[in-house]
Specification:
Structural class: alpha/beta
Number of strands: 13
CATH class of the largest domain: Alpha Beta
CATH superfamily of the largest domain: Aldolase class I
Order of helices and strands: EHHHEEEEEEEHHEHEHEHHEHEHH
CATH architecture of the largest domain: Alpha-Beta Barrel
Helix content: 25-40%
Strand content: 15-25%
Shape: elongated
């Protein structure tokens, strides 16, 4: 790819407008051209300017000379026995990131990454053993959805089908990385995904998961508006410090205090607490009772996630009996407590199993 060309994916409409202004025939046509480009890129999934036939050939030729519409390369695609697809995507700088598509009867969920690697070092999570390589750009965040749509042939289905049933109906920011440590790029990417004139996935079908970056939590509600999930996993600071080291910076009390003041918090927009069930670590009946007390007054549901093993892990999955007992206590307190069925375990695509082979770089290089 010619390095002098500009990528249009991930740009705001105003940014596209600024780029194409010098090549538009008149100022009056700029907004129309931006709308046409946006439609081709995000509604039709087109990457070839020559096929954008509602614009003049001369204008299309100029677009081809100056711009491109990016896609990451699918380095590896694995398909699980349950239909889950895991994509290992190669970015322009040769770094690798993983994205997972999880099909269900009533929905299709795409699990998107926000960073290459992760800086949090959660002890139960495979991604944390990689370390942080770098943040993803808004373009690279949106591209994960676009390349999955390419692979699933969803652009054509939406274009030609009378019933506009989406294969990818839901987005979760639960892949590699901590989204709130890359807030601005995540926000920009999600705004494009939510834009009603393009991809148009509702904010209520997008869930951002954080391990508890307290100063940024309110901003998710105020500036993005999507649903919020908390990677919680423990009911005491002692255990959470071990499982989620970020807790040493913002402990359980400070995290829960921030959630009680979360914008738009209501029974219809509940906070999801993600709780990985680890044998004899956080899965006792006493833990369940403490959890109920801790979240009192917060409209919420608790997703119980059987720990997904990975090579070298020190932990084991809770027994089915302990998970059921834990769930019964939470349900009896009036909270929804579904037990998540592991998906894609045979291809290491389940929760906490994502990891690429990109190498961690030195801190001095992050700001070079």
């Amino acid at each position: 790819m010619n390095s002098q060309k500009a990528d249009l994916v991930g740009l705001k409409k105003t940014e596209i407008s600024n780029l194409i202004t010098p090549i538009c025939g008149s100022n009056s046509s700029i907004n129309m051209r931006v709308s046409q480009l946006w439609d081709w890129i995000y509604t039709k999934g087109e990457t070839d300017f020559t096929k954008m036939t509602n614009m003049s050939k001369e204008f299309r030729d100029t677009l081809h000379e100056k711009f491109y519409i990016s896609r990451p390369e699918i380095q590896t695609k694995l398909i699980s026995q349950d239909g889950t697809r895991k994509y290992l995507l190669k970015l322009r700088d040769n770094n690798l990131v993983e994205t997972v598509f999880i099909p269900d009867k009533d929905r299709g969920t795409l699990c998107i990454s926000s960073q290459v690697g992760c800086t949090l070092n959660c002890s139960f999570c495979f991604t944390g053993t990689q370390g942080l390589v770098r943040n993803l750009s808004a373009s690279e965040i949106v591209q994960q959805l676009m390349v999955a749509r390419d692979d699933l042939l969803e652009w054509d289905q939406l274009k030609h089908s009378k019933v506009k049933k989406r294969l990818i109906s839901n987005i979760v920011l639960m892949g590699m990385g901590e989204p709130l440590y890359n807030f601005e790029e995540v926000k920009s990417g999600l705004k494009i995904i939510m834009d009603e004139t393009g991809i148009s996935i509702s904010r209520k079908r997008i869930t951002l998961s954080t391990s508890g970056v307290v100063p940024k939590i309110a901003s998710v509600g105020e500036e993005i508006g999507c649903l919020l999930a908390i990677s919680f996993h423990a009911t005491t600071d002692e255990v959470r410090n071990r499982l989620v080291p970020l807790n040493k910076k913002w402990n359980i009390k400070s995290l829960l205090d921030s959630l009680r003041n979360y914008p738009s918090l209501s029974n219809s927009e509940r906070i999801t607490f993600e709780y990985v069930m680890i044998d004899n670590v956080n899965d006792s009946k006493e833990d369940a009772k403490r959890l109920v007390k801790l979240i009192s007054g917060i409209p919420s549901k608790i997703n119980l996630i059987p720990f997904n093993p990975w090579p070298g892990s020190e932990f084991k999955t809770s027994t089915s009996e302990r998970i059921r007992d834990f769930s019964k206590i939470i349900n009896a307190a009036g909270y929804s407590s579904p037990i998540r069925t592991p998906r894609g375990q045979d291809i290491m695509a389940a929760c906490g199993q994502l990891k690429s082979v990109s190498k961690k770089i030195k801190k001095s290089q992050l700001h070079a």
